[in-house]
Amino acid sequence: MTSLSPRSRVLIEADETVPVDALFVEARFHSPDGEWSPAIPGAVLATLDNGVLAGRPRPDAGRYPLPDPDTLADALSRWGADPERPVIVYAVDLDPDDAKTAARGWFVFRNAGLRDVRVLDGGAAAWSAARRAPASAGTPAAGPADVTPIDAAQAAEFGRAATLLDARPYRAFAEGHIPGATSAPGGEVFDDGRLLPPERLAEWAASVGVRGGAPVAAYCGGGVAAAGTVFALAALGITAPLYVGSWSHWSRQGLPSEA
Which of 25, 101, 128, 218 is deepest in the core (most CB within 10 A)? Predict the structure, then answer.
């Protein structure tokens, strides 16, 4: 089997061939009003408020906790997903927020045990521009790409002893952040909804203090923007845990902060 690069294990281009049995998942921040029609025919819908990409907000878990396992398992079962079936997650618009939501889908599905999950670079617009049909010949499986959720105590340890990236806008970071964290706004890893090219992505990683095999983790306001950061690092072959509760959890626990 052809060996894939770290980037190809988490990202798929619109002009690549895709596995004939791939499950397409349209990732949206909010569920659309009224009747929904997928941008790519045959896709299923995953949003932060339909129980698939996040659970109900809770003070002890943050604004966008991981979905309830039973709710997610039910959705995956209805979709015909299984650990070996390829999954392609895509955003509808060329917008950094949509791209980060697609990355959140990648994190959630990988964390749920699906082995081959990739994000469609450029989303539905790139697919349409390539004039693609929903399925074509198969490609090598992406293989495992480890994702790990961490809690507040573990995030604090990253801030003390390693690199902890804060993916919120700088203004929010300046108002208060986890001690030891580095500002790394999540939108910086995307350009018009596409992940930065490898060279620019490597430059970004170096600019926020990511070095070689040194430990790094990420958080944001509610665990969505930082999923994009974790996804971007995975494209560089760097495994970074995600503090899912993020600042929405940390700030409600009376934990120390820096400004």
Answer: 218
**Do the Cβ atoms of 121 and 12 come closer than 8 Å?**
yes
pLDDT in tens, 209-241: 998 789 999 999 999 999 999 999 999 999 999
CA distance linking residue 242 with residue 226, whole number of Å: 7
Distance separating the N- and C-terminal Cα atoms of the chain: 50
Residue tagged 């932060």 (tokens): 48
Rounded Cα distance between 170 and 109, Å, is 29
Question: What sign does the CA torsion over 14, 20, 22, 24 have?
Answer: positive
Q: Are 83 and 113 in contact (CB under 8 A)?
A: yes
Going by the DSSP 8-state scheme, the letter that residue 106 receives in this structure is: H
Q: Which residues does the annotation mark as catalytic? A: 220
pLDDT tens readout for residues 47-89: 999 999 999 998 889 999 999 999 999 999 999 999 989 999 9
pLDDT band at 1; cut points 50, 70, 90: very low
The three-class DSSP label of residue 177 is strand
